[in-house]
Amino acid sequence: MPSECSKRMAGSDQGGTDQSTLGEEETRSQPAETETDAVEVDAADNSASARDEGDSAENTQRSIRDMLDEEGGASVFDNRDLVEPDTIIDEERIVGRDDQLESVVSFLKPTLQGNRPPNMLLYGPAGTGKSLIIGAVTEQIIDLCKSKGERFGVISINCQPINTLDQAVYELVQTVAKNVGAKVGVPETGVSTKRKYRRLYELINENYDSVIFILDEIDLLVGRRANDEPAYSKLLYQLSRASNSNDIEGRVSVAALTNDPKFMENIDGRAESSFNPRDVYFPDYDANQLRQILKNRRDAFRPDALEDDVIPLVAAFAAQSHGDARKAIDLFRGAGDLADERGDEEVREEHVRESQEEIDKDRSLKLVEGLTTQKKISLYATAAVARHSRRSGSSVPSPVGFKVYQWVTDELDADQMTRETYVKYVKELSTYGLISTSRKSRGRGGGMYMEFTFTGDPTAIMDRIVEDTRLETIGGQDELLQSVVNAQLNEFHEK
Length: 495
Description:
50% helix, 8 strands, 4 domains, five-stranded parallel beta sheet, Helicase, Ruva Protein, domain 3
């Protein structure tokens, strides 16, 4: 009597013919399979399945390879690096920053005569050329010092993603070690900040005759404890006095870059005295300057790849965004990418407009969808303050945002993070362009706090967040939320 297994296997042959359609008599006339036969059939089936899967994978591989090997149409770009945001460009391409360039050159020139240059504070809105200028000048100084047998080091970090002084010092150690091809020599955790400073000084003394520390977005290095001296104040104090205290044997200069014109108001008195920078102010670019910046990068594209109205239109859009050259270059590149995606041989006005619409409309909202639940709640609470405030402006003091965050988590019965974690989450959102951040003081004895300002529509962000089914219940409590927001704002401003 054949087993159920045998009967089932007999239902399909190795060639894949469906035997279940055969007549009952024909099926009965076939000899019953032995157990050995069944095993052999099963093995054959598995082998065939494996071959099929292998063939499928091979076909997929070939398909991917074909796509990668496919030449497609000619790109509108000739040298795309010229419109990449991090590319250090030649000095002849620098536009509208003659005064700033001259100042930075004059401040750093003593390095070439074996003297210590002054510390510098480069400040002004985002995208106004601070990093560009200091980067271009220090690149030239590296080459000139090398020709004289001098070892000049540029130690540059961005402080935005760094939370504490300890992390900042470790980042500096990592940067120097990478630049000189040495081992970091200290672990990231488990040793004191003082030990990390010592390792930093060791690396510098072994490899450089003079150094400049470039601390970009220095104002965002605030530390985790609101009532403490800001982490950036401690860092500036240590680095600016490292040469005088003989920790660093060579010449030391510190360049701090910030968007905050009032940065020095929040710095500790000792740090201010030790740092004592020379100021270089970077104003917004106007439309004519932006147009010239783009013309100077015109050769990023093929000679015949740009319609005449593309550069003026890109410059006009960027001028509306407060004179940000970085945004102008991003839009310039984005229009070219869009033309390439569509196989167009020329970048036209329509590519610019569509690229700008995409930037304005979707970027922030798409980013919101991918945030963790806690980050969504933090962002929702912060946006609620900006949306419902009866006070002028839409700036959100972090203590108020945190109080509203606590209320929202209570309403959702969600886990509640500390104030430090809330601030950290919201600060991270500045990297996505959702908000801008600045450090504020409540006056003598009142401590410091972060202030958040939305770059887009907070209502649109809130609407997108409550599309998450885990958070949708909070969306129907707008009136109550408004009352909570203004009660917390009143309490904050009355203190």
